[in-house]
C-alpha cells in the first residue's frame, strides 16, 4: 500500500501540534514571517504551509551551534542568501564574482541596477563646509568615527537624499558609498574604483594590494541579515534616508561580535607572527581561550570567503605560516575553521596596516549590501516591528517582595 501524500497545508490545530506550541505562538510565528498562511475560502479560517512548519520545527531541533533565532528567517529578500559555498548575490556566487568584479560592479548586482550606471563619474556626494572640516581632520586611530560624523551631516547637505525613484535611490547609494570611503581615508570623494582608493592611500607602492583589496571588498559586500544589515533595514523602515540609515549600520558594525571582531583577529595574527605558531596555538587551546578569527555561526565546515582570500594571499606571497600553517593547526586542535576576519587580518598584516583598519575595509565593502537592503526595505513601504516571545510572569501574579 502506497503512503498517503504529505499535505501541503495544515489547519491551525495541526500546525500548533506539529510545533508543540499554543495557537497564540503559532500566530506570532505567522506575524513574524516564519510561517506562511492563507485564507480558506470565504471563512475566517486559515491554513498554514506545511513545509514552513516542518522547516521551523527542524531548526528548533537543530544542534546547539545552529539553533535559535539566528537560524530562523524573518523576512523575504531577493538581495542575497548564504550557502555552504558562500554568499549568493542575486543568484551570483560571491566567491566566483570575486575573481574579477569590482565593489562597484558588485553593488550594481546587489541593487539589481539595470539602467544608467549609478557610479558614473559625475554622481559625487555633496560635501558641506562642516563635512569638509570633518574630512580634513586628523585621521583617528580608528577610522569609522569620522565616517559616522560625516554621514550625520550628509543627508541635509544632499538635496537628492530622499529621491524615491529606483534610479534616484541607487544614485544616492553610490554617493553614500563614495562618501564613506572618503571619510574613512581622510580624502576628498573620488570617482576612482574604491579598491584602488584604499590600496593607494594605505598601501602605496604595493603592486599586489589593489587586486587583493578588490577581492576582499567583493567577498565582504553582503552577508544576508547579519546584525548591521538588520539594523539598517529597521532604521530605513522608519522612513530615514539611506545616508542616515547607514549610520546605524556603521555603529552596529563596530561591535566586537561583528565587524569589530577584525581587530581581535589582527591581534591574534600579530601574536602568531611574533612567536612560535605551534606553541601559541597550543597554549590557547590548553587554557581554553577563544581563538579570534576562527569558527562561524553560519559556516560549520569553514567560511568559503576566508578560504578563497587566504589562497589568493598565499599566491601573492604572504607568510605561509599565517595563511596556511596556523589555520591548519587551529583546525586540527579545535575543529574550528578560519573565517573572513582572520583572512582579512592576515592581509592587513601583509601590508603593515595598523590594527583597526580591518573594520574600516569591512565597512567600505558592506555599504554595498546595506544600500541594497535599504532600497529593498524602502520598496516594501512597511515598518519593521517584530514581536517578542513573552517569558515573564503570568497575568495576576506579582513578584514577591519578601
From TrEMBL:
Residues 9-57 form the HTH merR-type domain. Keywords: Transferase. Pathway: Carbohydrate metabolism; tricarboxylic acid cycle; isocitrate from oxaloacetate: step 1/2. Its EC number is 2.3.3.16. Gene3D superfamilies: 1.10.1660.10, Citrate Synthase, domain 1, Cytochrome P450-Terp, domain 2. The keyword Transferase applies. InterPro entries: Citrate_synth-like_lrg_a-sub, Citrate_synth-like_sm_a-sub, Citrate_synthase, Citrate_synthase_sf, DNA-bd_dom_put_sf, HTH_17, MerR-type_HTH_dom. The keyword Ribosomal protein does not apply. Belongs to the citrate synthase family. This is citrate synthase (unknown stereospecificity). The lineage of its organism: Bacteria, Pseudomonadati, Pseudomonadota, Alphaproteobacteria, Hyphomicrobiales.
Amino acid at each position: 500500500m502506497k503512503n498517503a501524500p504529505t499535505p501541503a497545508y495544515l489547519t491551525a490545530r495541526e500546525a500548533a501540534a506539529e510545533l508543540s506550541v499554543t495557537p497564540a505562538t503559532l500566530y506570532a510565528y505567522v506575524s513574524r514571517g516564519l510561517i506562511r498562511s492563507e485564507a480558506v475560502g470565504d471563512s475566517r479560517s486559515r491554513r498554514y504551509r506545511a513545509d514552513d512548519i516542518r522547516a521551523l520545527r527542524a531548526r528548533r531541533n537543530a544542534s546547539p551551534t545552529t539553533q535559535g533565532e539566528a537560524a530562523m528567517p524573518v523576512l523575504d529578500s531577493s538581495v542575497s542568501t548564504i550557502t555552504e559555498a558562500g554568499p549568493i548575490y542575486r543568484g551570483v556566487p560571491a566567491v566566483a564574482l570575486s575573481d574579477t568584479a569590482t565593489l562597484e560592479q558588485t553593488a550594481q548586482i546587489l541593487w539589481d541596477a539595470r539602467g544608467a550606471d549609478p557610479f558614473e563619474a559625475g554622481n559625487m556626494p555633496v560635501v558641506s563646509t562642516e563635512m569638509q572640516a570633518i574630512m580634513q581632520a586628523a585621521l583617528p586611530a580608528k577610522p569609522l568615527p569620522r565616517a559616522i560624523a560625516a554621514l550625520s551631516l550628509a543627508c541635509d547637505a544632499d538635496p537628492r537624499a530622499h529621491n524615491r525613484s529606483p534610479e534616484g535611490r541607487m544614485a544616492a547609494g553610490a554617493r553614500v558609498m563614495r562618501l564613506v570611503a572618503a571619510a574613512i581615508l581622510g580624502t576628498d570623494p573620488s570617482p576612482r574604483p574604491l579598491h584602488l582608493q584604499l590600496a593607494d592611500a594605505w598601501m602605496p607602492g604595493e603592486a599586489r594590494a589593489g587586486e587583493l583589496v578588490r577581492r576582499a571588498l567583493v567577498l565582504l559586500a553582503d552577508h544576508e541579515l547579519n546584525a548591521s544589515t538588520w539594523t539598517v533595514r529597521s532604521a530605513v523602515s522608519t522612513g530615514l534616508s539611506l545616508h542616515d540609515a547607514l549610520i546605524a549600520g556603521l555603529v552596529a558594525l563596530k561591535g566586537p561580535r561583528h565587524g569589530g571582531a577584525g581587530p581581535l583577529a589582527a591581534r591574534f595574527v600579530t601574536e602568531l607572527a611574533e612567536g612560535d605558531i605551534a606553541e601559541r596555538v597550543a597554549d590557547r587551546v590548553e587554557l581554553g581561550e577563544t581563538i579570534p578569527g576562527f569558527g562561524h555561526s553560519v559556516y560549520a565546515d569553514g567560511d568559503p570567503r576566508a578560504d578563497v582570500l587566504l589562497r589568493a594571499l598565499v599566491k601573492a606571497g604572504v607568510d605561509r605560516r599565517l595563511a596556511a600553517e596556523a589555520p591548519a593547526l587551529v583546525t586540527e586542535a579545535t575543529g574550528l575553521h578560519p573565517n573572513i576576519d582572520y583572512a582579512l587580518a592576515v592581509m592587513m598584516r601583509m601590508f603593515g596596516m595598523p590594527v583597526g583598519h580591518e573594520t574600516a575595509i569591512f565597512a567600505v565593502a558592506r555599504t554595498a549590501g546595506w544600500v541594497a537592503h535599504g532600497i529593498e526595505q524602502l520598496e516594501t513601504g512597511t515598518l519593521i516591528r517584530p514581536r517578542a516571545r513573552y517569558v515573564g510572569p503570568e497575568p495576576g501574579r506579582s513578584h514577591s517582595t519578601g
